[in-house]
Amino acid sequence: MGIKDPRLYQEPMDLLDSQFCNINFVDKPLVGFEDEYPLDLYCAYTFDQILVALGKHTEQKRSSFREGVLYLAEKKLDVFFVTLNKSEKDYSPSTMYQDYSINEELFHWQSQSRTTVESLTGQRYLNQAARGGNVLFFVRE
User: Fold this and answer.
1) What is the pLDDT of residues 33-83, one digit of tens each?
2) Where is the DUF3427 domain (predicted)?
């Protein structure tokens, strides 16, 4: 049993064709992490979806994480949650970071105001490549 009249498929196919033409990006796999995290580049995720994908939320336990930086030591992974367009009424002066995209592969990111160059966190950021660490950015306007 099924729909036998091909005309019934035409309207949804036309709609799909129309919407396909409006796609302005194509997601890319998260190279090097495809088997570990169910995430793609250039996609929209909720905060909770990201935490589930990173293993911080489970069916048994929700993480209480609510900051802009998450470090997963066991994976040597720093995860940065960045808001680009901040207003002074919604953010304190100490969190009005000057973060911005330089190009498709480079991003200017300011560390949290309490992170110093000498701190363990500051040293981890500065030496992440040499120490085998990785960074994921989740950016919203």
Assistant:
1) 888 999 998 888 999 999 999 998 888 888 887 778 999 999 999 999 998
2) 39-140
Overall size of the chain counted in residues:
141
Same domain, 61 and 71: no
Report how far residue 125's alpha carbon sits from residue 135's, in angstroms, rounded to the nearest whole number: 9
Sign of the C-alpha dihedral, residues 117, 121, 125, 126?
Answer: positive
The stretches of 58-130 forming alpha helices (DSSP H) are 120-126
Q: Domain residues for 36?
A: 25-65
Of 65, 81, 114, the one marking the end of a domain is 65
Beta strands 77-83 and 134-140 are parallel
